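Appendix B. Raw example, untouched.
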Amino acid sequence: MANIIRTQTTVLPGQRIEVSTPDIPAGAAVDVVVTEREAGKRRILEFLDSLPPGPHSASTWDEVERSLDAERDVWDS
């Protein structure tokens, strides 16, 4: 079975792409597939990491539950 490593990188000046991995030894034969992402598209985790903390963020599960309970109370009234 082939060892598949998925990674992201940025095109460097001179339209070069550099990939480094400790999982494949020097001199090994590899296949490289490059897929360009559409401009402006980001992975969901990149997007979520870019959001500033807001009024709906919580650092503990207890805070999340208290927030949900308060929201349910609003619905019931």
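End of appendix B.
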